[in-house]
Amino acid sequence: MQGDLQRILYHESTILSRLDELATQISEDYSDRELTVVAVLNGSLMFMADLLRRIPLPLKLDCLSVASYHGRAETSGEVIFKQIALPDVMDRHVLILDDILDSGHTLAAIRDKLETAKPRSVRVCVLLSKKKRRERHVDADYIGFEIEDEFVVGYGLDFMEQYRNLPYIGVLRADLIALAERRTG
Ligand code: IMP
Ligand code: MG
């Protein structure tokens, strides 16, 4: 799989030391609040597992699953919730975890949907944030790394459901994206 990458961006050890810092900050901020984490699957799976084990606070965990990409490297703008019931977050302090903030459509839709369940507060934590103009405004309160507008895979992030199991994050070769897009139309 490594041959499919143009370059590695963050090695596993770099990711884990950054998670130490994020976890310390989150633990301080929520030390006197009851925390409910809502993780967005599948992309945030590795991030969630490694981050939450570094947060020594009592917390509740719920997972959501959404589809917005339909397998391509471009966002469609449409966000489909894959479950019928939303997590019960009424009066809770909610921290949404996602792998990456790109156009903003996904997180804006999830935040809006959770707000309807009347949580006490909602914050957003992403492993990666692309430096680009968002199509929808989303404030991420905790960001692992800010990256350029390139397509990345690994450590949970996929391209057409592949590469999630790479233990590091890298930039996918542009020719592979172009090839896959020609094949799927
Ligand atoms: P947004 O709705 O455009 O902000 O996209 C967020 C979702 O798109 C993320 O949860 C990812 O699943 C996917 N995504 C955006 N950029 C990338 C990328 O560079 N690599 C892999 N997935 C991405
Ligand atoms: Mg995703």
Describe the protein's architecture and organization.
With 185 residues, the protein is of the alpha/beta class. Helices cover 26% and strands 30% of the residues. It contains 4 helices and 9 strands, in the order βαβαβββαββββα. It has helices spanning 12-29, 45-52, 105-115, 174-184, and strands at 5-10, 35-41, 59-67, 80-81, 93-101, 121-130, 142-147, 152-153, 169-172. The two termini are 24 Å apart. Inosinic acid binds next to strand 5, helix 3 and strand 8.
In summary, what is this structure?
With 185 residues, this protein is an alpha/beta fold.
List keywords for this structure.
single chain, three-stranded antiparallel beta sheet, 26% helix, globular, binds inosinic acid, binds magnesium ion
- Please state how the strands of the largest beta sheet are arranged side by side: 4-3-2-5-6-7
Biggest sheet record: 6 strands, mixed
Helix content: 25-40%
**Percentage of residues in strands:** 25-35%
Unreliable stretches (pLDDT < 50, length at least 5) are none
Coarse structural class: alpha/beta
* Average predicted local confidence, pLDDT: 93
Question: What value does the Rg take, in angstroms?
Answer: 16 Å
